[in-house]
Amino acid sequence: MPTAVFPPTRPFPRRAFAILVTLYFLGNLAGIPLLRRTHAPIEPVWFWGVATLISAGVIAVSLLLAARISLGAPWLEGRLAKEALPHWLRRGLALTGLLLVVALPISLLANLNVDARTYPLGWELLPASFKAGVVEEVGYRLLLVSLLAWLGGLHWRDENGRPTRAVYWTAVLIAGLLFGWAHVDARLGNPAAAFWDYALIMALNSALGIYFGWLLWRLGLEWAILAHFAFDAAVSLVLIPVYLAESPVAWGVLVASLLIVLVVSGRYLVRSKVGV
Fold it and tell me: Fewer beta carbons within 10 Å, N or C terminal of the chain?
């Protein structure tokens, strides 16, 4: 599968930097409605200013590292050729659709014990999904994958001077496993959870993290963010509400929709010969 091609060296992507810092700031703000809904503590105003300054530094370093190893955000950086944009968009949509078809049923298993009395059904889950997509992908993918791949590339390079495929895969796997563990750690305070609950959460989120890392590598940060957002929104706003509603009609619509997505996405991906 063709990837976004960057020159060996390129100037600092100011536009991408400004957009990502703005998205990061808005992403943090987007989590506030859900915090209010669940009566969770909300940080003071000064915290958001400090967090934005720190995130700006993190994003700047991440973009500099990514530029050295052919990673980054090709569309935001203006590096994606105009004639390649339609194929890039279709490929990203197809891969996101495939993610939903495969991961939603597994996610259902991880949420069988969800309590309808405490689950925060409402529009607040949508901006919270946006926050997760932006904040976590900047941290785990743009920063961590780029840093690990850059470090590995200091020792293992291909004929073009870039990190080898093994280095990229190692970076993606490590970041994915750390992403999975972070989501398990968030549930360790539940004494009623069994070992298999933790194992399933770890496996699911690690696989998701690896997939998002692969999207960063093959398509760019934009699709890692969009796929993450789409998955979180689909789980919180569609899958769990359908499960709690216990409506055969709702289940039928959901299953039919996933089958259509599977056929359309699978057909396109097979024809476009997506590789790893």
Answer: C
Spell out the alpha helix ranges (H) of the chain.
Answer: 14-30, 32-37, 45-68, 85-110, 125-131, 146-153, 165-185, 195-218, 221-234, 240-245, 248-272
Render the burial of 162-200: b for 16+ CB within 10 Å, e for the rest.
bbbeebbbbbbbbbbbebbeebbeeeeeeeeeeeebbeb
Q: Where are the domains of the chain?
A: 14-272
Residue reference for tokens 């958001």: 48
CA distance 26 to 123: 16
Q: Which of 236, 256, 214, 238 is nearest to 96 (CA)?
A: 214
Global model pTM greater than 0.90: yes
CA distance 236 to 120: 9
Tens of pLDDT, residues 100-139: 999 999 999 988 888 888 888 889 999 999 999 999 999 9
| Burial state string for 237-250 with b = 16 or more CB within 10 A and e = fewer than 16 | bbbbbbbeeeeeee
Helix (H) or strand (E) holding 135: none
**Cα(230)–Cα(222) distance, rounded to whole angstroms?**
12
